Structure formats: C-alpha cells, structure tokens
Amino acid sequence: MEKELDGMSGDAMNFTLPEDLRMLKEALRKFVDRELIPIELHACEGNKLLPEVRADLEDKAKELGLWNYDVPREYGGLGFGQLARAVVWAELSRSVALPTRNANIFGPIISPILYRLDEEQKQRFLAPTLRGEMKWCFAQTEPDAGSDPSSMRTTAVRQGDTYVINGTKRFITDAGDADYAQVIAATDRAKGSRGGISAFIVDMKTPGVKLLRRQELMIDDRPWELAFDNVVVPAQNMIGKEGEGFKFAQNVIAGQRLRHGARAVGVIERCLELGARYAKQRVTFGRPLADRQAVQWMLADSYLELHQLRLMLYQAAWKHDRGEDIRVEAYMVKNFGDTKSFEVADRCMQIHGGIGMATELPIEKFWRNQRSMRITEGPTEVLKTAIARHVLNEFG
Q: What is the distance between the alpha carbons of residues 309 and 265, in angstroms, rounded to a whole number?
C-alpha cells in the first residue's frame, strides 16, 4: 500500500498551474497593475472604451504578445485552451477599466459558433470578423423565454429556399453596433429544445430587423431589444442543420459560464487587496480596522471562497481542455463564483464604509456588475435546479 500511495504522489493530482501559465499570469498581473488600474476610472464613456484609450491598449496588448489569444491557430490566433483563457480573464477582471461584457483589447471577439460555419459562410462572416471589419451580436434571450429557451416564441418558418423569422429578442449586447446577428429561433415549437431550435446568421440591414430600444440598466452595459418582422433569410444562412441551434447556443453559454467564474476570481482578488489595505490604514476608536474580529472574518471568509473558486475554475477548465463534458462543473463555477464575488464586493464596501460607495473607487462598480452576473447566462436558481437534477441522478 505504501508503494501504491507513493506512486500517486506525482502528477496525478497537481494543483499548480503549469510553468508557462504561471509566467502568463505574472505578465498579465503586471500589465493590469501598470496599464489598467491607473486609468480605470476614466477609461470608458458609458459602456465603451474611449477611442484613444482603446488604440493605446491594443498596441500594448500586441507588444505583450497576446493578440487573438483565444482564436484557434488555424485561423491565425494563439489557440489558447480554456485554462489559459481562464487565467487571462481572471487577471483582466481585477480592474474595472475595460467594459465588463466587451473587453476586446486583445483582438476581435469571436463567437465559438462562427467556427462551426461551413466554408462559404466562413468566408462571408468569420473572415471579415477576424479582420475586424464586421461585428456581431448573439440573439437568444426573449421577453418570455430568458432562462427557458425551450419556450422560445421567435420562429423561423421554411419557405422554399428561405426562412421567414418573426419574434422579439431582449437584452442583446452590442446589437446597435452589429453587422449581423446569430439568431436562435424555433423551427419546430412542438419539439422545443429537443431538435426544434435552429441557428441563423441574419444581416442586421435585412428588411424587417428593427432596433426597438436600448435598455438602461444599473450596470454600464446597454443591451438592445430587437424585433424580427417577416425577416427573410436565405436557407444557406442556417448554421449547421435544422434543430441544432439549441446545442450550439448551449456550447456558447457553457464557455461564458466559465468566464463568469474567472471574472469572479479577479474581482475577489482585487476586493481582498482593497479591503486588506484599507483595514490596515483606517483607524477607528484608536485602533485599525484590521484589529477588529468582524473585519478579520470578512477577509478570512473572502479568502476561503477565493481558494475554493479558483480550484473549481481550474479543474473545470482543465477538464474542458481534455475534451470532457463540463456542463455540471460550469453550472457550479458560475453559481458559486457569481454569488460569492458579489458577497465579497459587498463585504469590501462594508469595510470601507461610506467611501466604498463613492465612484472614485472601483468597489461600487464591482458590486453592481457582480450582482448582475447572478442573472445572466443562467440565474442562480436555474443553475441550482440543474445541479440538483445531477445530484438526484448520481446519488438517488
């Protein structure tokens, strides 16, 4: 038994990042500390980087050697796996300098769905998007079908060599700037999510596509509500086969859920930095806050949760890179990360008192952003229900 245990002490359970990813993490930490944090309170106007700031940061991102880090090598990118991406996302999320849902200073953001296009479609949509000539939006959420895509009311009806799309989409980020939308619509409502939902590329200039309104939110993101009124789309604009849209959409959202977890890691780390420093500096009733047990426990709880989340995130990303199914892990990472990062931001605000609510510090923005993350890409309650189903199947 002793020899068997010795044999297990090698790389079978290695909880440290590989050397190349540790180096990447250190380089990004310096980049964020030097380039992002000093400008974070005036880098954006609304939910967009100022043009001069974007140009400067993109030049520095190229110098860092991370341009198109998440684009596969066959399309000219660096081909980072999910674990490497998680490291990038976590480090960038230590600052509020970049737009929360559009932090693309390392090259155009490419939807994973675009890599599933056929060759003709790739030439029309993927290639110009990679060159930065076209922008896209992802249109799935609806007023009555947010967390339940199977009840989707937007329909796509086949008519000869075309599909006619009718319906409304809501909370669509970047729709106002998009050249085309990746639209998820029901082609057979009776089948629901089991083969009844399809995906289409829709040119935003197509007659019948209407930008109804830009929605004002408590966060900086300004998503749009869209209407599709008898929008005629060529059948050749379907992504994959009829009925595969739900699968494509869920693959996109699984990756986004890991990004939620990575963002939460960065937020918790920064809030710990801010909270611990302020606790040492702020003196009340003759003693620093750092001497108060109530404050110590806030910091201790936050540190415990950071450690838990980082392990969950790295393990899920590692499994993804091995080609394994990570649906349940993605549910857990997002649920735990979004919930705990909001709680940590709240504690950080409490430690700072009144100044924590001031816009001259990033705390209130972390607080608002992380509260919103508990709703998007799967609300907390929906994810818990999915996790519970898994538990009942595995242990019941």
A: 7
